[in-house]
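re the bet — no i am not wrong, look at it urself. input seq straight from the record:
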Amino acid sequence: MAQMIKESRAFYLTSLIGNYVVALGMVIAGVVLVASGDLGDTMLKLFGQSIETGSVGIAAILVGGLVLVMLIRATMRSFDHTVAKESLQPAPRRDDH
């Protein structure tokens, strides 16, 4: 494994696990709210679109799902950037005498 990737591993793991736990928590909370039958008019404006629902749980599932998709994309982009940056550095010279 390359040096830069080794050094950034702890940061990646900490941020990924924390972010995914929060996003999955939102989805699970949304499922619980839908299952319990709690109602509440909700209107979200995301990315220029307006979404109206009669259940807070549906809105929580939607937001949690969007956060998960954005996290997966950001994670893959970050890994790609790290690997590309690492591949541009010259390999260490190995002198066998």
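see?? The two ends are 25 Å apart (CA to CA). told u. also The longest helix spans residues 3-36. so pay up
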